[in-house]
Amino acid sequence: MLRLNSSLMIVTDLDGSLLDHHDYNWEAASEWLIRLKQHAIPVVICSSKTAAEIIPLQKRLGIPGTPFIAENGAQVALDGEPTLKNEPEENYLALCSTLRTLQATYRFNGFHDFSDAEVARFTGLTLTEASQSRQRLGSEVVLWRDDSDKLDDFRSVLAEHELALTQGGRFWHVMPAGCGKGIALTQLLQSLAQQKGQTPTTIGLGDGPNDVPMLEQVDYAVVIKGFSKTPVILQRNDQQNIYHTAHVGPQGWREGLDYFLAQPD
Questions:
Q1: For the chain, what is the mean pLDDT?
Q2: Domain residue ranges of the chain, discontinuous segments joined by +
Q3: Residues recognised as catalytic
Q4: Where are the beta strands (DSSP E) in the chain?
Q5: Model pTM?
Q6: Residues paired with residue 203 on neighbouring β-strands, in sequence order
Q7: CATH class of the domain comprising 88-176
Q8: How many CB atoms are located within 10 Å of the residue 92 CB?
Q9: Mind giving me the DSSP string for 120-179?
Q10: Which NCBIfam families match (predicted)?
Q11: What is the maximum span of the chain, computed from C-alpha positions, in angstroms?
Q12: How confident is the model at residue 228, as a pLDDT?
């Protein structure tokens, strides 16, 4: 088992992992969050959620100011302030413009097609949370309404526009090519190593296909049982450092940390 000390870093997905897939509750994980804070172990959120969603959530979780990765890697925040490769609004507006032209060929909707109230209705978020989820700067959430066998063609067409498609636990996500949770985590770890002179030992937790790049990069991976039809398969040789949970959501999150981390005295 790993020791609880500040050389560790927890990297976690949110929906379906730290947060319950249905009601976004994290009560089952709260005891571990307290322990980690007591031992000065940072909890780094790595999510498809926006910075506007993550920053207030960090405060509620008791981890304000911690580095985070938003929009599936389109944004990286080292000190609570997200950065992007290009101009944020231009990025998002250009991406939505491209998607709008593709709606003539494929049946789908993006969050930009909906109001806050509509997003709240089909996600279960509050109106405020739905508004925060639509404050996107580098990626778009897509509700695919076409045949599943057209997804590969859609992915190819997106690639022609230098865009990529990834599947989350609930929705599809379109973002600039070259982005992703794994790439963003590598960038974040490199920056932290330059700042602090050392690279932490990482435990990653996730439940969806879009978490695979992140779970491939961490030292220890917890694959939380999820609801996606696409299985989470890791191409790693160190199977002893991978744990698949029997429980879903925050119960699975707690189970994964119970497996890898020594209990405090």
A1: 92
A2: 8-83+180-260, 88-176
A3: 13
A4: 8-12, 43-46, 68-70, 75-77, 82-83, 108-110, 140-144, 163-167, 172-176, 201-206, 220-225, 242-248
A5: 0.91
A6: 10, 220
A7: alpha beta
A8: 20
A9: HHHH---HHHHHHHT--SS-EEEEE-S-GGGHHHHHHHHHHTTEEEEE-SSSEEEEETT-
A10: HAD-SF-IIB (TIGR01484), HAD-SF-IIB-MPGP (TIGR01486), PRK03669.1 (NF002976)
A11: 61
A12: 79
